[in-house]
Amino acid sequence: MERAIQSRDFTTFAKLTCADSNQFHATCLDTSPPLFYMNDTSHRIINCVEKLNRHEEVPQGAYTFDAGCNGFLFARDRKAAALLLQRLLYYFPPNPDTDLSSYILGDKSILKDAGLENIDDVEKLPVPPEIRDKVPAQRFRGNINYFICTRPGPGPVLLSDQGQALLDPVTGFPK
């Protein structure tokens, strides 16, 4: 893993990351009693990433799920991040009365790269090409509360202005 990160080998990074996550959850299922951390939405997110990667023939995304149902997704590059976000929003659109800026938190600049400005654009997303000729795709509106989009950066930064924080300082929950 360290070599993959140092050499910016996303293909190896993606394979190792996904395999490690899958093995962790397989071990959890193999305990007595079994531990069920992931839910149906978690499995659907994995399926979304796997379908994209098979379609592109080179890994474009990777996933890992900690001891919970929340996924951490990684993209090969900015173009792959936009493709992945389009698919996630296609499969998991917000409720119609949701403002896109409250559904996508963090770095919203990815929305422009994905060709999205508002909820209407999400509703108009085409069926992803990897499933276009398959059984009609099921969409899971409202299954996800929000996405947090980030970019690699210098690491943690102490904010002098609490208004810039993504988390509420009292509750610890996203604003």
Automatic annotation (TrEMBL):
GO terms for molecular function: diphosphomevalonate decarboxylase activity. SUPFAM superfamilies: GHMP Kinase, C-terminal domain (SSF55060). Signal peptide: none annotated. It comes from the Eukaryota. One of its GO terms (cellular component) is cytosol. It holds the Pfam family MDD_C. Residues 1-158 form the Mvd1 C-terminal domain. InterPro entries: GHMP_kinase_C_sf, Mvd1_C. GO terms for biological process: isopentenyl diphosphate biosynthetic process, mevalonate pathway. This is Mvd1 C-terminal domain-containing protein.
